[in-house]
Design a protein that fits this description.
Blueprint: E1 2-7, H1 14-30, E2 35-40, H2 65-77, E3 80-90, E4 93-101, E5 107-112, E6 135-138, E7 141-145, H3 154-162, E8 167-171, H4 180-191, E9 194-198, E10 201-204, E11 207-210, E12 214-216, E13 222-225, E14 232-237, H5 240-249, H6 252-255, H7 262-265
Length: 270
């Protein structure tokens, strides 16, 4: 399968951002990609850099203008797209949601960010956390999604892998460059999975996004990488046989001791 990741900058004009994203979907299809991943909040600026209720107006339903355009682009190009938006489920209840749109325009799967960030950003005041690490079938693959800060937790990728994932998808809107690719390559290696990460790039109001979008194989080797300054489309071919080979050569699945890992899930007072 051929996969692609879009690295792009977003401005205040939501419609223009969506048109740009659709242009990248067209380019990915022209390069033979079967699946293209857009960055987190590709259709808006990264609004969670501010505490202001006016940004609640950026939330859309899965049938709103943004996802309608993405679904049309998927059908037009006969390509699958993973698009992550600020999703309004009902008034006052929103999520950070990645949607896998099939080449037929239907939404095959939704994943809602489990770990809204509140280190530099203010995501926790805008949307509720998700509560599942489900995986799903796409072609012959099993796919799992973790959004941005989710992937800072090894438990995210491990849970997805334990639930069958062979391909990890990571839409990003992170301003952090330190250890970005190193962490994601480690997630690939320690779980024997391919990983596709798509980040924002460039200045968006007060924040700068350093790109670094990447595709890695199950050994943690980079197959494709974008720079830290420019918009880009990166593409790579992936093969499920490499998942099998990686998991045989580094059999940590055999050697795991989940019977001893209670401290990870035990609630503490600290």
């Amino acid at each position: 399968m051929r996969v692609a990741a879009v690295q792009m900058n977003s401005g205040d004009d939501v419609s223009a951002n969506v048109r740009k994203a659709c242009g990248y979907i067209d380019k990915a299809a022209a390069e033979g990609a079967d699946l293209v991943v857009l960055p987190e909040f590709f259709n808006t600026i990264f609004f969670a850099q501010y505490r202001d209720q006016k940004y609640n107006a950026l939330a859309e339903t899965d049938s709103g203008a943004t996802m309608t355009a993405i679904r049309e682009a998927a059908v037009r190009n006969k390509i699958a797209v993973i698009a992550t938006i600020y999703e309004e489920v009902e008034v006052g209840l929103c999520y950070d949601t990645a949607m896998h749109v099939g080449a037929d325009g239907e939404i095959l799967h939704k994943y809602r960010k489990v770990h809204p960030a509140a280190v530099k950003s203010l995501e926790k005041i805008y949307f509720r956390y998700g509560s599942r690490f489900d995986t799903y079938a796409f072609r012959e693959w099993r796919v799992g999604i973790g959004i941005c800060y989710d992937m800072a937790f090894p438990e995210t990728a491990r849970s997805l892998a334990c639930n069958g994932a062979e391909l990890l998808i990571a839409p990003y809107a992170t301003s952090r460059q330190n250890m970005f690719q190193e962490i994601l390559r480690t997630r690939s290696f320690e779980n024997g999975c391919f990983l596709v990460a798509a980040n924002k790039v460039g200045q968006e109001h007060d924040w700068y996004f350093p790109g670094g979008s990447m595709i890695s194989d199950p050994s943690g080797r980079l197959l494709a990488s974008a720079d830290t300054e420019s918009e880009a489309l990166i593409v790579a071919d992936i093969d499920r046989q490499a998942v099998r080979e990686a998991r045989i050569s580094y059999p940590n699945r055999r050697d795991r001791r989940p019977d001893l890992y209670g401290a990870i899930t035990r609630e503490t007072d600290a």
